[in-house]
């Protein structure tokens, strides 16, 4: 039996429903670190802000203090990285993206969202997926009850576990509402525009 097959069997033995593991993935308890470029260093968050732009009635510039005053929620979810690891039951705390959508009064013409991070990283996600019932689309500032580790996105990352984990942009600084889809960083470099792990939409042409 190969590694992947054994990993899937071990899940069932542990009482985890193996159908939670998308095709071609293995489950791990580790939390690998993956990104292009370097990890930003923040001396303090006084000059940090989150910009909300594009197809909105109210463009926003939200300071860290203002952001922390928003209502936060806790979620537990599975995450799936395109490099084939999945991690089950990860715990996050953050502000739902729908809160920002209401604050900014996103216009009807908006169809997609671009998440913008430090150093020019970006990721695109359809708005319908963000607004669909039960969707987790979180601006996350805690993992496992503690502030994010620098390499995992401190102080703020996007969390969108329905799609491959590359959509979950670390070091988030901007949210752009768009009236058409556009490729983000990885999507312009060979990764699938949508990226559903259960459809194995890893790369262009999948
Ligand atoms: N800003 C930024 N966010 C990013 C990336 C990146 O290169 N830059 N890589 C993505 C990819 S490809 C993955 S798999 C996840 C990894 O998150 P982790 O390091 O917390 O496991 O972050 C995503 N978010
Ligand atoms: Mo990734």
Can you put this structure into words, describing what you see?
This protein is of the alpha+beta class and 206 residues long. The chain has one domain: Oxidoreductase, molybdopterin-binding domain (Sulfite Oxidase, Chain A, domain 2). It is 14% helix and 30% strand. The protein has helices at 3-13, 64-68, 97-104, 127-131, and strands at 26-27, 49-54, 60-63, 73-80, 85-96, 112-117, 122-126, 138-143, 146-147, 157-159, 172-178. It is globular and about 55 Å long. The mean pLDDT is 97. The structure holds ligand MTE and molybdenum atom. Residues 37-186 form the Oxidoreductase molybdopterin-binding domain. This is Sulfoxide reductase catalytic subunit YedY.
């Amino acid at each position: 039996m190969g590694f992947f097959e054994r990993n899937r069997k071990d899940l069932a033995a542990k009482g985890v429903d193996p159908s939670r593991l998308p095709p071609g993935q293995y489950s791990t308890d580790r939390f690998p670190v993956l990104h292009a470029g370097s990890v930003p260093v923040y001396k303090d968050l006084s000059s940090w802000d989150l910009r909300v732009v594009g197809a909105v009635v109210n463009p926003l510039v939200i300071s860290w203090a203002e952001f922390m005053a928003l209502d936060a929620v806790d979620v537990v979810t599975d995450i799936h990285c395109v490099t084939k690891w999945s991690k089950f039951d990860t715990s996050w705390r953050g502000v739902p993206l729908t809160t920002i959508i209401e604050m900014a009064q996103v216009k009807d013409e908006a169809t997609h969202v671009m998440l913008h991070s430090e150093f020019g990283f970006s990721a695109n996600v359809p708005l319908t997926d963000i607004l669909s019932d039960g969707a987790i689309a979180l601006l996350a500032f805690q993992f496992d009850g503690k502030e994010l580790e620098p390499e995992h996105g401190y102080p703020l990352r996007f969390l969108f576990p329905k799609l491959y984990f590359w959509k979950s942009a670390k070091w988030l600084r901007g949210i752009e509402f768009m009236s058409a889809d556009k490729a983000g960083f990885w999507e312009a470099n060979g990764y699938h525009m949508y990226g559903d792990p259960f459809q194995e939409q890893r790369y262009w042409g999948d």
